[in-house]
Please model this.
Amino acid sequence: MLDRSLLLFFNGLNCPALDKIMWFISGKYEWIPLYLFILFLFFKKGKWHGFLFLIATIITIALADLSSVHIFKEGFQRYRPSHNLDIQHLLHFVNNYRGGSFGFVSSHAANTFGLATISSLIINKKWFFWTISIWAALVGISRIYLGVHYPADVAVGAILGVICGYISFWGLSKIYKFD
Model:
């Protein structure tokens, strides 16, 4: 029941200011400037470098997203806390957002940790690794705060994303050497 206790702790931290912050952090389109900045870092090294990074990112996100939905969510069919009748009445929801029915594993976590992994493996700078890792962790925490994922959903999603990032990097490193 650690999973439930941690969910209730993070979700119970709610206040209007934190609701807005976590809603923003959990958004998809809010991070477009970050994605463009990362892409800029790669294209700055050369068009070929940027293009291959873009391909690696697409492969990573596709692997992470498709496997999180079609293998895990559809395979396990574990209800999100927001759809679990035993716990949903204990939760605070921001903008009445509850997500889809199933939440294991978190696609947000898989995608953000996948992006963090592939980009930090290619950039290979400590400052970037820590910055992008903290960002990915905050996205995962925001999903718990919003009451749409248990911590285990996020943790396993993060692991899935890291694995997908490494697979993409391994495959890409067979055809191109990033410096």
